[in-house]
Amino acid sequence: MRPGIKDETLGMWLGVVGVAMFAITLPMTRLATGSQDAPQLSPWFVTLGRAALAGVLSAVFLLVTRSPRPAPHQWRPLGIAVLGNAVGFPLLLAYALRVVTASHAAVVTALLPLVTAAVAARVLHQRARLGFWLCAIAGSLLVVVFSVLRASQAGHGFGFEWADLLLVGAVVAASFGYIYGAQVTPSLGAERVICWVCVMALPVTLPATLALWPRQPVATSAWLAFVYVGMFSMWIGFFAWYRGLALGGALRVSQTQLLQPFLSILASIPLLGEPLDVVTLGFAIAVVSTVVVGKRLSQPASPATNPAQAAAPKMTPAAARKASPHGR
Predict the structure, then answer these.
(1) Helix 43-64 to helix 25-33 angle, to the nearest 10 degrees?
(2) Which of 10, 66, 57, 109 has the alpha carbon at shortest distance from 232?
(3) In this structure, how many other beta carbons lie within 10 angstroms of the beta carbon of residue 76?
(4) pLDDT tens column, 227-236
(5) What is the pTM of this model?
């Protein structure tokens, strides 16, 4: 077994764990914000409040572990991660879910793995063979087709509107946040990356959360959903996700996000009462297949052997010493 295989495998599994936690974010955000007809917590409160909750937990973690401050060159990628993961993605998602259903949102957010891989290739200069990109595109298309079919079966339809633009913005914001966070993970540590991201935002998120605290009655389910997106979506999930991106490679591990819409649907069965059918299982198997094949194709090709060297007969050690000018 060549060095690094164990780390890559562990990275893939950590990526799956992180994606599983993130998958519940969509139905939980829907529960937290409610709909236009039955609003609960405001999107601004959910966005800033979940970051504030994670920020307080992060400050405690950093103090208990006596974590050093980031180096000067690490503040910029951390700042981009703040804008992408702590503000951009949750805010745009929360506003979009006030208008569209979770199934509708899955159509657009299914593009997250492909966008993340593209950002990884651009920012981290990670390259893969053509087969990897074909698998990534195929997997993304499978997810999009499935989401469109599911939304159509539910009678929600599919049409681009301003809410879809918000979802596209959320995908782009999350992708940049993921990759720039992964950029400093090897030197700073996965846990410290998300902790510093949340702590950096704390001077804004904490007072804003207190100022936006709801004055109207809010359902218990909305509060529980808010706690989830603050603790797991914004904090604990990133412990596994950033570590997975660092160990397994951001370009490869990002493809585990293809599973996220299906995991969201599974979580929506108890949360939103949506049924599970054979079509869901069939598409899930197909997407998992593209992830597995894509992971294999993402491995760099072995160096080509020089034809002349391959054709040359092997020499014994004694013959080599005689042929070498320094053989004696």
Answers:
(1) 120
(2) 57
(3) 13
(4) 999 999 999 9
(5) 0.76
